[in-house]
Amino acid sequence: MNQQNDDEVGDLLKQNIARAENTELSRDLWPQLLEKLGQPPVRVARDVPWFDWVLAGLAGAALVFFPGLIPALLYHL
Amino acid sequence: MDLLERFASGDLEAFEVLFRQHQKDVYAWIVRIVRDSGIAEDLTVETFLRIYRARARFHPDGSFPAWARRIATNAALDHLRGKRREVELPKEIAEAARPDPAIQDESRRKIYRAFQQLPAKYRLVATLALIEDEPYDKIADAAGLSANLVKIRVFRAVRMLRKSLSAMGITTGANR
Hints:
Chain A has 77 residues and is an all-alpha fold.
């Protein structure tokens, strides 16, 4: 029954969202890549807003003080 | 020294040869996930940039196409995570959709919106498994997951979609 229902949702998606048809690359991307290779790598840490670090810290602290949350977290991964 | 060994040791000419051999396949994989040619081109460049920067971690005995596909999948996933969720139906999807007189545009828009609202990791596997009909083991290999975890994510994606569609008034088998 579940398999049938899953198939129905899959069919609904297929009817309404078509497969990607044009998957051919239309131009050579090497010049664009070469240009990027000449640029220094972006430092990711600089782009992360400070409140994201705060949230990450709070989440880490919650796991330390409430280890019972770990199975629930793993379930949702 | 063969091509892959030269690439791993930082030879730019070897990298260019690999790029020209694989850019089309990487692009074709990414465009199936992000469904936008311009974004797919940018992500193809980003993928090869990551590949070049990670060349020291590549084992020349391994499969370059499989490694490239995994990095491409991660780049596409990063894009899906960062992208503002679209609520408007893109013109090309509306036009490309198979004609079905029973399904109105409004329903199609709702289905597309429900799909776009899936968390990125679920949208990734649902796109590849349910729309593109890619086999689970290929998706698993590309996403760095087990085939079982891919199945679980597809199952959860379907469950979330069914719930969203039900809330929007669109019924599927389980909701009738």
